[in-house]
Amino acid sequence: MTYTKRRFAAELLAELERDLAEAEPEFSVVRLARWASNIHFKYQGHLEAGLEDNIMTIMLMGDGEEFELDMYQIRQLAKEILKLFRKSKDSQKSAKFEV
Length: 99
Description:
mainly alpha
């Protein structure tokens, strides 16, 4: 089973919300980096094309402050992935009608 960009983005947003609701401190860069690392290793070889870079972006946050993103930037990344997914679906639909 392929782990998709859409699923990653949705789960990333869910992890952020979980951090806000349950984690202490509220936002843990290290916890989120470990979560991304687990996803990467669990689905290695089954990632949708282009997804590995997004996962690595989150994983690298645990390697130092120079790689950290704040909550807003992470949300934007997830929303951008979802936006690209929607655009690709729309273009696939229009291509079906053009044939």
